[in-house]
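Troubleshooting log. The previous run stalled partway through. Resubmitting the same four chains, unchanged.
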Amino acid sequence: MEVASTETANLNTAVDDGRAEEGGRRPQHLDRLSFSPVQLPHLADYLPNLQTITNPLENSQFYHPSDEFYLSSSDVILRQTVLDLSGNFHSPSTSPHLSYPRAGPRKLIFFDPSHVRAAIVTCGGLCPGMNTVIRELVVGLWELYGVREIYGVKAGYRGFYSGEPVRLNPKLVHNWHKMGGTVLETSRGGFDLDKIVNGIQDRGFNQVYIIGGDGTMRGAVTIFNEICHRKLNVAVAGIPKTVDNDIGIIDKSFGFQTAVEMAQQPINAAHVEAESAVNGIGLVKLMGRSTGHIALHATLSSRDVDCCLIPENEFYLEGKGGLFEFLDARLKENGHAVLVVAEGAGQDMIPRTDAQKEERDESGNPVFLDVGGWLKSELKKWWARDHPDELFTVKYIDPTYMIRAVPANATDNLYCTLLAHSAIHGVMAGYTGFVCGPINGNYAYIPVKEVALAKNEVNTRDHKWAWVRSVTNQPDFGRS
Amino acid sequence: MEVASTETANLNTAVDDGRAEEGGRRPQHLDRLSFSPVQLPHLADYLPNLQTITNPLENSQFYHPSDEFYLSSSDVILRQTVLDLSGNFHSPSTSPHLSYPRAGPRKLIFFDPSHVRAAIVTCGGLCPGMNTVIRELVVGLWELYGVREIYGVKAGYRGFYSGEPVRLNPKLVHNWHKMGGTVLETSRGGFDLDKIVNGIQDRGFNQVYIIGGDGTMRGAVTIFNEICHRKLNVAVAGIPKTVDNDIGIIDKSFGFQTAVEMAQQPINAAHVEAESAVNGIGLVKLMGRSTGHIALHATLSSRDVDCCLIPENEFYLEGKGGLFEFLDARLKENGHAVLVVAEGAGQDMIPRTDAQKEERDESGNPVFLDVGGWLKSELKKWWARDHPDELFTVKYIDPTYMIRAVPANATDNLYCTLLAHSAIHGVMAGYTGFVCGPINGNYAYIPVKEVALAKNEVNTRDHKWAWVRSVTNQPDFGRS
Amino acid sequence: MEVASTETANLNTAVDDGRAEEGGRRPQHLDRLSFSPVQLPHLADYLPNLQTITNPLENSQFYHPSDEFYLSSSDVILRQTVLDLSGNFHSPSTSPHLSYPRAGPRKLIFFDPSHVRAAIVTCGGLCPGMNTVIRELVVGLWELYGVREIYGVKAGYRGFYSGEPVRLNPKLVHNWHKMGGTVLETSRGGFDLDKIVNGIQDRGFNQVYIIGGDGTMRGAVTIFNEICHRKLNVAVAGIPKTVDNDIGIIDKSFGFQTAVEMAQQPINAAHVEAESAVNGIGLVKLMGRSTGHIALHATLSSRDVDCCLIPENEFYLEGKGGLFEFLDARLKENGHAVLVVAEGAGQDMIPRTDAQKEERDESGNPVFLDVGGWLKSELKKWWARDHPDELFTVKYIDPTYMIRAVPANATDNLYCTLLAHSAIHGVMAGYTGFVCGPINGNYAYIPVKEVALAKNEVNTRDHKWAWVRSVTNQPDFGRS
Amino acid sequence: MEVASTETANLNTAVDDGRAEEGGRRPQHLDRLSFSPVQLPHLADYLPNLQTITNPLENSQFYHPSDEFYLSSSDVILRQTVLDLSGNFHSPSTSPHLSYPRAGPRKLIFFDPSHVRAAIVTCGGLCPGMNTVIRELVVGLWELYGVREIYGVKAGYRGFYSGEPVRLNPKLVHNWHKMGGTVLETSRGGFDLDKIVNGIQDRGFNQVYIIGGDGTMRGAVTIFNEICHRKLNVAVAGIPKTVDNDIGIIDKSFGFQTAVEMAQQPINAAHVEAESAVNGIGLVKLMGRSTGHIALHATLSSRDVDCCLIPENEFYLEGKGGLFEFLDARLKENGHAVLVVAEGAGQDMIPRTDAQKEERDESGNPVFLDVGGWLKSELKKWWARDHPDELFTVKYIDPTYMIRAVPANATDNLYCTLLAHSAIHGVMAGYTGFVCGPINGNYAYIPVKEVALAKNEVNTRDHKWAWVRSVTNQPDFGRS
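Second attempt completed without errors. Output:
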């Protein structure tokens, strides 16, 4: 499962002719890009004598797969598509130019469908599309490959060793993609490696589909390792779920687009409340513990937001270039303002009681305080101090559950569908310890180990953030 | 404006070790990819002595652009990201590996904002997001660059020479992104090259932003050529608009996602009508004259559709493998079925009267007949013939205007925003004869000439379509 | 407009002091109103020795019914609430002042829940809320009265004698209120009195709940009569369903509000299409075969409609006061216009082929021609004739199925819930041959015979229509 | 402005024949109902020599008012429609049977439109539909009566004496009915009688339209009284606005239906969160300070709510019949439960700090504590104590601003439209000191004095509540 050697920076950059600064000329030479294909773990890596059979899609009544239908291991997707031909300053040019195996059906498969016992589990918080992924895993396994033993593991990882899995079939899951949440139920914690792998063995599962966030994916790595260690003929596929979109490598996580769409509602409400008041401020807290993707995308989608605060960009309230100064200007100009704040922003600025300093969440991290409530209170204090005789209103909205508990929208439903089918094709082809997801718009397989470590943060040093910030025209709090 | 030489097939492919067919091995060697940067037309190409000034974003009160903020001509985006390392069969490996200039602000600009007179025009049919593009062109020019003379040209190309342009400013366009259609009005036809370019000169416009479909883009090419010919200091930027998503090179066109989202409503309605009847068929016609993207995406998003008919894939009604046989099976199995048909599908199958054979639309093409109405009638005839004593219902929905006349959803609003800002940055940097759009997720500049010719069809020979078809499990009418 | 004294009918009117003409004085005396309670059929009418038992709600674990909880036959609802004290001209004052029994639980019931076999059937076209009514009949019978044998009769009246009824329970119907259409399926026709009543007897049903339109209610009258004739201990309750809102006596039919809400979408789309074109006309056809309620309410809700055409008010196209003249004025004034037309409007104006003249629908009435398509064509001819050189666009939307195939909105869900519970309480109390529905905001029982005959038309002679017409400021085509 | 004498209980009740308890018989005699018309204040009450003119609607180009078009003072609407013919126990039979003047145009009016200067003001919190009312007041005055001087008073009552009113016209307000909030801005407080009436005089307003809640209506009474006292030729009309629906006499307040509709979203989200967890509780706080109408209607509309807590019905947590016992049972049965709580419920149960005991809102009442936060905390404590080893989740949603800051739905838009036109017709006819609103489905005029005092509470002693409670099957906490 080694990621192949990457003796890289293999970018033969063009010589910039020096006129770029003058505004419009372009390099003249062809450029060459080296890249290194990422290796994917496979059951055959430790079970060398597995039998293969021809993909049963060959026998479909309705369609007739041509040779092009099947993908081979030589079909790859480039990870890096933005380049600086001058090789001078932008970071992309120095990162390794990896490629990942393309997702899709293989002509030979490593599982006899009549022997498959598949398990599906959902872990962590809710995210739009979970039920679609489950539904499509069931429908895909059943319809495309003829698998008949498919089980839903209830209530997260603990379901592998407590409680009874539910038998699933296409009829049962028929309408699940129109429902928010997860019919299989979910929970946090409950990760007990031995119990889980024993449970997998005891119940005879040989395909395990794990839908969850970064913590869950780290758990999946451990499970995968243990399964390798025990040399079990069990494939493990992860399907990354994080409404925050904070998982790296893949373009974006499922449910994220739905969340951004839904976030327009509270932003609209905040905008209306602010506009309808005298010196009205609408304040919306959006999900995003360590990353501000939802806040940022929702802001750019809405165009009603004056300022968007995210964890990746520190901010301050008082003084020159601070939030209060900016809001003062906006209120004078427009009579109202709308603030969006990601839940993870400003955590260092909120005073904590001694008890709060000690408090830890299930993962051992300091608990998050409510940045929205704190901001509301600070805003009121500021106004009462600086403008004691003027009307002022702050309306604070925390729409968290209303955003994440909805069914996936059309974009995410399609995404979840292709994600689930990608996972099935990969597992049937004998891959294991992988996740699937879109890279530059095409579905790829990625070692779960890589994804469990990759973090997708808003890079505030990057051109993109700067540019986007220029769209909103909001302060950068001293960043440059 | 030559696309640089492409001494191609520059893919040093790995030697496939022959085990791919056995299900899981991967190539061992690093691979190298050559690519050729696309050249973009620039005002300096024919006006060599233009002055440049420093980008006024430098003086923003609120943010402090770092060096990384500005892009140069060496920042490019790869077009091709899916590769077959074996170089054997899949088409991508043989196409030229082009790269396009990345969109974004340049440090030196070729327009003094105080001398800019910008014109914005919308042409052709409605598409979600047109008003957002207009709004953001106005707000971006005004807020980022300090342009104060911005005009809306009314009712399409003819507005350049008839009627008075409307002066626009941020206050006026404030809420336009929440409205469907185009406040500037639109029309088809009215393209009179001389009158248009004269109108541009007479009114003193030096930046022209043209929002329209492929016909409009072909017009933009002509306008651009004439402007070059006259050596006018006028930059022309196109913003491709096609709800059908049939424009090539760019990832997808704005409004397309909204249309797919909206298409879920009629599909749901058709599904409900079909399910509530005995042998009920729900039939939905979706936009897509020469391409089936909306139909295809809406089908994959919905999961309630039994069969999706698109122009790129011929179909037939009677006999083995035909539509009727398939529907017969579905009705027996489920008691109902849902059909989605793109408006351009099956045009050759519909009998035409002599008058209809002669009829031509504004562009000289045969007019489209209503494939939905025809299908409904054929379905009824078939049933009456084959099952005269059984109940049967076909409910046909044509939701065209309800889909395209809505405001953009969040995804498309963000898209339109970045599109407009991309166009502004490009024009201010002196580029001309270009369009902007996302390529593999990043915004790029593309010669309008290329886009006007590129057609984005659903490639039914490609792996992707085949795979997708396997998701819906629908007949392929003999395709393989 | 004399408000003359008139101790007419049963109205003891005040003496008007003659100052009405001066603008504001009022009668001084108390007035008296006679009214006559409507009699409701009861099983005891022809089965005099039925046993009663105490309502099992008495034994509820969770709530404790007080005496006020139960209604008696003396609880009634007045039908007429708008009066003209002068008694002179307005119609209300001369109609009989009826009262209807109030719906709700009775303390003594005529059915032993353990012996109940309830049948539920849906007939005719779809209407938002059908599934809610079914769900609540099931849940109410089960939870409130402990009934355990509840059956869904499939696909309309024919289901009583062909096919097998489906056993229903609360778990099964749990989410039905969130689904459009009817899970029980529906059909038109299939009314065979003998077979139906035999089917009821054969299957041992003793409570029959019939959900359907006016035709269905006339069928219910016949079934009820036959059951009386056979002296069967079978109660028949009707639940009037007509999305057109054309059933009389009750305030409005379920699903109607949802339809009006949904109709805003096509009207918005038509408005956007019209506004975005030069001389654009948006044309929307809304349901309403003999009555224009949906069109009228949707028009008043929208405020974007310039003219609303309904079956109750004849219109004409050409000449003074005609539609074309009006549209000409609107296009000159605003550049666009929106038309709403009820499907039953203008049927006499559309030319029919000989075949069409002969054609009859299932009920023997002439088939409806597409007034929208006809209007679109007439509009185009008119413009081409009168303004040959000007641009003109008509966009025609027929949203019928998209409006009626949706789930009920909150208002209608509540309505359907109370409707179903009303029906249950009435049937358990031994009433039969009745329907339930709100009269002046409170739920009442009404003999099905009355409702089957009552027609709810928009009274264009009435003050209300005139006033409403003044809101839209549209032409009245010579009406006064 | 006396409400005419009400020598009441004039109900000649039928003699119940004693068989009601046996389940089905009805009274035999006609019954008679006395009622007393309510008197409405009129400018002529203190300005006896006002001139009248013929309603300019007579001269409309488009429609031709018949005699029936105009209403007179003898057109009334009965308030009481539910009767107990036995006169025995139910409260309705003993209340006075009032009638109110019907709203609509009068043939003679007391204002010359060319001399009208109308002022519109919005006060208090946001409510869906405020902008529609404003829009329709402007459009109605302008289009129907030809009034040209219409002003929006900014930011509530204080706008009469500070700041400049905004001139309004139909073009300006064209799209306001599609926007939430109030474009005129609103505020609480600022009521200074002298300054307000002086401001009215100084600015020459002679029609004042006041949109606001019960506090605002009490202010309107005072303003009206002072105007009478000063004998000003100024008509005052109130338009009751309370999203809580806590104003009496009228059927329901505008915006209420929209709020109930919107409340389905958080309830759905809470339901999904609860269902997706192990022992999950979804908790939603809905508006309703002294009344539980939104909570109650939203509960009945949703059918996903297990228990609805409202201010009118006390509840308790611990012990037999308490909330915890009920939830325990539901969790055992279904694995999850959904709670809806009105913001004013349980205020006496929440412990207050000394500071909180002192705290008063702008009206001098004790501030409301967050019942949702308190319940969430109590639920967690209960579970930790009683089920320490079992998973448990409470998700709490406070959707307040997301519910009230939306535009009115179709039902409320129509309502607001008729409300505004009713107010205009009443004012033009010289009535003053009145509000308008629907009574039993028809629009009426009511003395503002009456409405300012009338409270619309959920009557938990009444049959209706009991019956409704039986629908939800929730505990009644000892009520009977």
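Takeaways: Chain C touches chain A through one residue (CB under 8 Å). The domain at 108-253+408-452 of chain C is CATH 3.40.50.450 (Rossmann fold).
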